[in-house]
TrEMBL record:
Keywords in alphabetical order: Kinase, Transferase
Keyword Kinase among record annotations: yes
Domain named APS kinase: residues: 4-43
Molecular function GO labels: adenylylsulfate kinase activity
Presence of keyword Protein biosynthesis: no
Pfam families, per the entry: APS_kinase
Superkingdom as given in the UniProt entry: Bacteria
Enzyme Commission number(s) from the entry: 2.7.1.25
Protein name listed in UniProt: Adenylyl-sulfate kinase
Length: 169
């Protein structure tokens, strides 16, 4: 029996994960649907990167426990590779949550435009290269149960509406 519902939003850099999550948040606020949004990239944003220590999952466990303690049962979680890490994320949140995984996809042109608004110079080039590799890796690695949503030419609010239908919130 599930006691919570976790929506996992993954995708390459620049595809709009955070923007879509925030648009879904706004939509759910408008509908008075209780939920929490956790930006996975912020859970282990440090240098050197502490991913080998599993810090993101440990921090997720702590943060979600605090939300749970005060009554939250719906979680929107974003992170680039999250759709490949469902088991670890479920273990981190505990219990037996219903899980809906979504892979946002975008063309190289669209992603380059979006990344170009927040990065420049060598940083932009690094992000573009990593993002292109991640797109292939994520699409190949994500299971058939993962919903795939193309973001090219779409407003975040439109994608949020689609997500709300998929998760039935």
């Amino acid at each position: 029996m599930t006691d919570s519902h976790m929506v996992i939003i993954g995708g390459r850099s620049g595809v709009g994960k955070s923007t879509v999550a925030f648009a879904l948040h706004d939509l759910l606020v408008e509908r008075d649907v209780h939920h929490a949004v956790i930006e996975g990239d912020a859970l282990d944003l440090a240098h050197p990167a502490p991913w080998r220590e599993g810090l993101a999952q440990r921090n997720l466990r702590s943060v979600w426990a605090n939300y749970r303690e005060v009554g939250y049962r719906r979680l929107i979680y974003t992170n680039t590779v999250s759709v490949l890490e469902e088991e670890a994320l479920v273990a981190a949140v505990g219990g037996a949550p219903q899980v809906t995984s979504v892979l946002l996809r975008g063309s190289d042109t669209t992603v380059a435009d979006r990344l170009g608004r927040r990065e420049s110079g060598e940083s932009l080039e690094r992000h573009l290269t990593r993002s292109a590799r991640a797109a292939l890796f994520l699409d190949d690695g994500a299971g058939v149960h993962v919903h795939r949503i193309d973001t090219d030419g779409r407003d975040p609010e439109d994608i949020a509406e689609e997500l709300a239908v998929i998760v039935d919130w």
